[in-house]
What does this fold into?
Amino acid sequence: MSVQELDFSRVDEIIKQTPNKKGALIPVLQKVQKFYGYVPIESIERIADGLHVYPADVYGVLTFYSQFKLKPRGEYIVRVCCGTACHVKGSDRIAEDLITKLKVAVGETTEDRRFTLEKVACVGACALAPVVIVNEDVHAKMTSDETRKMITSLQKGQKE
Amino acid sequence: MDKPRIIVGMATCGLAAGGKPVHEKAKEVAAQLGIDVEVRKTGCIGMCHREPLMDIIMPGRTRVCYSDVKAEDVPAILESHIKNGEVYKERLLGQFKPSSPDIQPYPDTQYYDELDYNKKQVKIVLKNCGFIDPTKIDEYTALGGYEGAKKALTAMTPEQIIDEVKKSGLRGRGGAGFPTGMKWQFCRNSPGNEKYIICNADEGDPGAFMDRSVIEGDPHAVLEGMLIGAFAIGATHGYIYCRAEYPLAVEHLNIAIEQAKEKGFLGTNIFGTGFDLDIIVKEGAGAFVCGEETALMNSIEGKRGMPNPRPPFPAQKGVWGKPSNINNVETWANVPQIITNGGDWYASFGTEKSKGTKVFALTGKINRTGLVEVPNGIPLSEIIYDIGGGIIGGKKFKAVQTGGPSGGCIPSSLVDTAVDYESLAALGSIVGSGGMVVMDEDTCMVDMARYFQAFCQDESCGKCTPCRVGTKRMLEILERIVAGKGREGDIELLLDLGSQVKITSLCGLGQTAPNPVITTIKYFRDEYEAHIKDKSCPSCSCPALIHFEVTPDACTKCGICVKNCPVSCITDGTGGKKGEKPAFILDEECVRCGVCFEKCPFDAIFKHSGGTRVDKVSAKVKKES
Ligand SMILES: Cc1cc2nc3c(=O)[nH]c(=O)nc-3n(C[C@H](O)[C@H](O)[C@H](O)COP(=O)(O)O)c2cc1C
Ligand code: SF4
Ligand code: SF4
Ligand code: SF4
Ligand code: FES
It folds into this structure.
């Protein structure tokens, strides 16, 4: 999707649906990201106008919180947990394997926009470490082999 | 209850382990067998290592819990238990104690409470977790839910409530352990008619999940606690600040709030007393520092989540500049039972200064991982061995990290320490929020320190220099030590920098960030010295300091290592040519990925560093209950 094609009317709608503008910046950005998959840079001024704050405030919040992404992400968001429990159980290895397998750095998206590789600091499934999360699904007690197999089947277009 | 009921554990851990297919299969099989059952969900009962869990209740009989259930086990379990009235032994975990004399237990069936994992636990906060359906308020009220709130609002004065909480000795479960009753008193005494209460559900400690489980499994306990607290303080607005990484917790909270409103436990004129309270869920956006109370309030206001200097304390000037009282999830969840059963009852658990129970998330290299709730003051050894079942694969216990990135490690030599606020603080660690990550002989303590330092450095908000720059410098030193480039004097430098960062940082993040480094140096200085002086890693873990080697006599030339090496640095060993030599690793090219070590089916590859050698023993690790 190029910039021209992006339709920002949804941003205006989200703002309109937020009657109480006090403290609404983060929830609005979360809704925008949920809809577009990221927060398009071009939407910042609209959001600032709509919520009566400065664009710098919006940008400041966007860059402060790790949840917000300023670039489009892939169809599958693969997150490796790097929390303490997962680290002790060898999640570094899984992350490195995925870097090789997907040929992208952490935080990056493959050229075909199918996969984004990210790290996350704990999703609360620590008892079943190490975990890998694909979109919303948490996969428990993963190994490098299993992770690779799962990615291969996703690459082939099969459902997980 | 007149129908059989099937209950599947569907918290984050249950789902990750495969609870959903079990839930679906249960519905499907029940329909096939033509039995009229109700299939429900529940939260996390704490036995994460045995998930997926499936319970069955037959009318008039005790509740039976099955563990490690896969979808394909479901038909046999239902057939046996529901159709034939017999417990299916193969997946049996235990039956719950009968809740009344009319309930008949099953013969020759172990009680759930008597399992090694549960024997020493005392469940107050986790009483309902994994037992009730968290999306149904009736299941909560059926077990006495909202009775505490009713008593507080209709039969007690705010002062009496605060006195009861003071009497209970409850201290904040979010990390600092501040007395809860006293905190409420401050906020109550603070002038102003608009006040706020906040539940801190940010749970930033990576490797801890107590708050997630409580919210997912028993959200009404948190709401009820907040209702009681709000009434005592005189607050009419509440926020729950929940970590963005916990979507299920947010979902359950929102459902619970809606249901509480319908029943009149939230909203206006609660219990006909004229007291009003509304509670809103705010989702965090991924910043560890937002767990710090002043940063959290800035985040609620929609700003960058940076801490403010205190004073003013939240009780004086909190969210939106109004007096605010913030407590942790577990703190709130204790409150209803303190009011229902009395402060003295609560104070009968625990020690002189640390009353009641504490929930811990037991993870890492331990056999039985999960959530445990124990009386304060229990010896650490009982948690590690009696409850946790010791170390995986019979390896040696090295240390346990408590308190996450703000805490410290406790070495195996101090395993008899009582787990309470004072005793852990005396060792340089903290109880913290309740994370307990167990480490064995293969975990390098210098690398652990580096890991936590990297975490703190990454999460430092950058507002003050000692933390922003200090954590960075400390990380650089630790990185060079694990890379085998440590210098003489680095240990002293770390200690010096660490103590400066501790005293000069603005908020708790910086003030505690050096703790993991300081405690690992205190208890494992020899490991630091080996890295720096001998350029070796005694745990054979730091990639830059280890070497992989083949034992020629043990190598069968199967070629598996050769095939799997990502950089093709293993020669021979494929058994193709006659008289060929065993596999051989070219050390200069090896990237220390360890794949060959893991894959060799004959355990012919070992790793070594300095004087230590680690052989792989691929004996299957037996599963324990
Ligand atoms: C860096 C940092 C992170 C924190 N994270 C949390 C957290 O995730 N959850 C929590 O309850 N308290 C956290 N705290 C402690 C809170 O600031 C506060 O003390 C606590 O919520 C008070 O509740 P309590 O008295 O019930 O423990 C954190 C503190 C600091 C300095
Ligand atoms: S100590 Fe660290 S996290 Fe806290 S205010 Fe200073 S820079 Fe920010
Ligand atoms: S995998 Fe093991 S046995 Fe097979 S060739 Fe390699 S070292 Fe030899
Ligand atoms: S550790 Fe990795 S890189 Fe080194 S020899 Fe083994 S497989 Fe190859
Ligand atoms: S540390 Fe990985 S899920 Fe908590």
Summary: Confidence is low (pLDDT under 50) at residues 619-625 of chain B. The CA atoms of residues 16 and 104 of chain B lie 34 Å apart.
